[in-house]
């Protein structure tokens, strides 16, 4: 129900109902309409400008999620780069020092870095943050490739060192915990059978007949035969120019062509050939030349034990062969 307005009439001295009529009435309606339209437009643009459409809201949310993921990627890249630097430090200053190898030069590590970045700049030039991160990942990948190759080389070096080490005649050929079975020094001595001074090019270990004899390094049996002087003798060829010989054995435990490991039983102590008592005559050759086997025994001995071995080995006891 429309609200009724009243106006004071001076002639009748009364308040009487009053209504706009004609143009005034239409002007009032026009004013209301204009004000309503203005408010509606203002509300619409305010909504569009400040709130945005549903699509824009979704895009904004996706954009935010992408920024978060990008930040995570950047953090991971930084962490991976720091960890890689630690590996490079260990590579250059630990492993290569231990393996007696030169550290990689910076130029070797940087070779090829940035090669594909130029191409990417054409595509990513408008997005410097993306380009920087992309470059960081590219550099990381390159350094990682270089480091993987370097570690492969280190692994090969380690295997080579291990093979060289396992090939060295580094243990005693018979169990000799008390170190008192070493009988004669390396060098010239009066031969008990030929009764004259002859160079003794090995070490003798006195032991009961049948005592096991061990290969002193990894290698391959190249001879296992009976000699008039050596008796039953085994020759083992090791890598890296080493050869060992085990003479006067009572029996063989290997044959020619066998591949043996350090510590493997290859025969048993005896007194065959030119020998006056059960013992092992043991020789080491390097590049075809005889060397004193005592110099290779450090591996299973303490310094004190090694000194005792040298002292015993220097005694001129009664020769056995
Ligand atoms: Zn001997």
From TrEMBL:
Q: Is Transmembrane given among the entry's keywords?
A: yes
Name the InterPro entries on file.
Answer: Cell_wall_metabolism_enzyme (IPR050570), Dup_hybrid_motif (IPR011055), M23ase_b-sheet_dom (IPR016047)
Q: Which CDD domains match?
A: M23_peptidase
**Where in the numbering of this chain does the M23ase beta-sheet core domain appear?**
200-293
Keywords (alphabetical) are: Membrane, Transmembrane, Transmembrane helix
Q: Which GO terms describe its molecular function?
A: metalloendopeptidase activity
Domain of life according to the entry: Bacteria
- Its protein name is M23 family metallopeptidase
Source organism: Dawidia soli
Q: Name one Pfam family in it.
A: Peptidase_M23
Give TM regions: 29-47
């Amino acid at each position: 129900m429309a609200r009724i307005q009243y106006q004071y009439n001076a002639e009748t001295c009364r308040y009487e109902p009053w209504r706009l009529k004609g143009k005034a009435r239409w002007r009032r309606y026009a004013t209301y309409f204009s004000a309503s339209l203005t408010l509606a437009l203002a509300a619409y643009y305010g909504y569009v400008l400040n709130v945005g459409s549903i699509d824009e809201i979704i895009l904004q949310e996706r954009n935010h999620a992408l920024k978060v993921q990008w930040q995570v990627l950047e953090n991971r890249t930084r962490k991976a780069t720091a960890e890689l630097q630690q590996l490079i430090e260990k590579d250059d200053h630990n492993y290569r020092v231990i393996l007696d190898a030169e550290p990689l030069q910076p130029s070797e590590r940087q070779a090829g870095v940035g090669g594909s970045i130029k191409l990417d700049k054409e595509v990513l030039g408008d997005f410097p943050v993306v380009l920087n991160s992309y470059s960081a990942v590219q550099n990381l990948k390159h350094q990682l490739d270089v480091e993987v190759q370097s570690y492969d080389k280190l692994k090969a070096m380690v295997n080579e060192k291990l093979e060289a080490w396992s090939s060295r005649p580094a243990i005693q050929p018979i169990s000799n915990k008390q170190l008192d079975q070493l009988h004669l020094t390396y060098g010239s001595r009066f031969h008990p059978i030929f009764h004259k001074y002859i160079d003794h090019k090995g070490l003798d270990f006195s032991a009961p007949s049948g005592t096991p004899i061990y290969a002193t390094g990894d290698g391959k049996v190249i001879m296992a035969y009976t000699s008039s002087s050596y008796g039953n003798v085994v020759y083992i060829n090791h890598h890296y120019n080493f050869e060992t010989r085990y003479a006067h054995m009572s029996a063989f435990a290997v044959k020619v062509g066998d591949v043996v490991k350090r510590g493997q039983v290859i025969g048993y102590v005896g007194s065959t050939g030119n020998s006056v008592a059960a013992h092992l005559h043991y020789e080491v050759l390097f590049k075809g030349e005889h060397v004193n086997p005592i110099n290779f025994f450090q591996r299973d001995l303490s310094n004190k034990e090694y000194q005792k071995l040298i002292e015993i080995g220097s005694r001129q006891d009664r020769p056995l062969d």
